[in-house]
Structures are given as C-alpha cells and as structure tokens.
Amino acid sequence: MRSSVIVFPGSNCDRDIAVALEKMQFKNQMVWHKETSLPKTDLIVIPGGFSYGDYLRSGAIAGKSLIIDEVIKFAKNGCLILGICNGFQILTETGLLKGTLLRNKNLKFINKDVNIKVLNNKTQFTSKYRINQVLNINIAHNEGNYFTDSKHLQELKNDNLIAFKYCDNKGNTNLESNPNGALDNIAGIFNSKKNILGMMPHPERMVDKFISNDDGVNLFSSLLN
Amino acid sequence: MAKLFQLNLKKNKLKFSVTVTLKKDVLDPQGKVVENTLKSMGMGNLKSIRQGKFFEIEVDENDQKKAEEKVKVMCEKLLVNLIIEDFKITKLI
User: Fold this and answer.
1) Which residues in chain A touch residue B26, judged by CB atoms under 8 angstroms apart?
2) How many independent structural domains does chain B possess?
C-alpha cells in the first residue's frame, strides 16, 4: 500500500507518521506543499503540527496551498485521506470535512493521553477495532474543540460519521471526559463517503509498546486490509 | 511631476477595514477571559466583551463597488471562516 505525507512549513508530526507508516509496511513518500502533482498513492496523510505558525486560523493558510488542489481531486476520486490534529484542521479549512476546530474551552494547550472510543468500525480506517473499544491515545493541541451546525451534527449521527468520541476508561462520554469542549465529545469524523477521516488524537504516537502503547496500530492495519 | 504621480497613486487606491467577529452563538473564551480580567480590575459596569480580528486592506482600483466586491471575495475565500465568524467591511479612504 502506497502512502503520501504532505509536508507544510511548520508541520512537526510528519516524520512521526512516516515512521509509523513504514513500520506498518506502507511504501511512503513525503510530498512538499509546493508540489502541484501527487505520486500514485492509496492514502494521503495530512500530518500534525503548526502549519504556517497557525497564522490567521489553524490550517487556514495550508488549506489554500498548491498541493491541496490535488488532494481535493484525489479525495473526490475516492483516495483515502487521513488528517491528524493540524491535518484535521486543514481538512476542515479545505471543506473536505465539515465543521471547524475552535480554541480549547479552557484556553490551554493540552498535551496528554486521553481515552477515546470507536463509534464506527465499518470503515476502511477502523475495521480492525471493536465497536465501542476504548483506546488510549495522545492529544496535543490548542484548537481541538470541534464545532459544527446542528444540521450537520444530526447528519453525523444519522449516517454514523462520528469516528471517535472522548470518553473515560469505561467508555462513558461525559463532560469530565471531554478535554477540550468538543461538541458531543467528538474526537474524529468521516466525510459522507467515509474515505476521509479527520481526528485530533495522534494514532501515530501509539504504535510502539516500548514508547507508549500500541492502540494506534489497528488504524494502520485496518487501512492495509 | 512628483505631485502628479502622488495624486495618481492616491486615485488608484481604495482602503477598507474588515472586522471579523465570532458569531453570536459561538463561545468566545478569549473574550470571556479579557472581560473577567477587566471586571477584576474594577471595571464594574462592563457588560460584555467579544474579541475579534481587524484587517486593513488597500485595493488598487478606482471603482468603489468593484473594490468592495474584491474585499468581499477575500473575506469569503480566506479571511473569514463563515461557519463561526461574521465580517463587516468599512471604507476608510
């Protein structure tokens, strides 16, 4: 399986995701944001970081970069797209995913391991997880407070497009287990065709038991399936 | 000659300000903190504060309508996230 990681000035999780992908036997390429064409690829990853120093709004400038036109084209043709953290913010700025990510409710940058649960395991990103499985995954962001209008929220619920929700270690989703104020504890969503996943938690940081845990491995092995 | 040139420059330039604010229903934690801080400084009659962004934009254009339309496109395409923000364009010069 071929993967491409898009690199912007200010991306800082691009190498982490590349290491994770290669460990999982993806044939990975890094693609600089000024490129105007993408190599043949089955998966495009928009990595975490602080593209363009979060100027204007997180992801706003990267969302207008040259390579993004290609990413949108690939997305429309069904290519798998994974946006992590700043990558999720960029995907909302391009319009590939609806909604937006506001500043964390407590106004603090949050870097900690949190619990999230899998809400839909019938997708190419999550098939190796069990439904309602609780994962312990790191988050590190200042703007992770997912927000969307009530019509889209209803669509997310009706069409099973919520990928992950913040929860406690028993899988309960409530105010206490919501780290950033995200609407309905949402930590990650799919587009309507489910070929695009945007998520604030960092699965690429969870692929090695000796460093953290391996709760993120199944996301990548689902993709390989 | 220099004066003429200056005049010309002035003629082809229209200046606008754009104010971007969070929509009414969107939580504005930064504004809230500023509000609370001002209140704790003794500004008792302060009612509320919403924080926003401000842009000054010069457009190389004579026609005010056209220029304003350009600024509007800039807002909608990049400066403003229409899901959560409102904007107001004001002509400065």
Assistant:
1) 102, 147
2) 1
Confidence of residue B80 (pLDDT cuts 50, 70, 90): very high
Burial letters B5-43, b for 16+ CB under 10 A, else e: eeeeeeeeebebebebbbeeeeebbebeeebeeeeeeee
Q: 0.80 exceeded by the pTM?
A: yes
CATH number of the domain residue B68 falls in: 3.30.1280.10
Domain of B22? 2-91
pLDDT score of B8:
54
In 3-state terms chain B splits into helix, strand, coil percentages (rounded to 5) of 40, 30, 30
| pLDDT tens-digit map of A73-130 | 999 999 999 999 999 999 999 999 999 999 999 989 999 999 999 999 999 999 999 9
* Residue A129: domain span: 2-224
Compute the nearest-CA separation of A90 from chain B (Å): 12
- A147 touches B: beta carbon within 8 Å: yes
Look up the CATH number of the domain holding residue A187: 3.40.50.880
Query: Does the beta-carbon distance from A103 to B83 stay under 8 Å?
Result: no
If one counts every other C-beta atom within 10 angstroms of the C-beta of residue A105, the result is 15
Structural domain total, chain A: 1
| Chain A contact for B42 (CB, 8 A cutoff) | no
A and B: number of Cβ contacts within 8 A = 30
Chain segment A75-87, per-residue pLDDT in tens:
999 999 999 999 9
Q: Which residues of A are catalytic?
A: 85, 202, 204
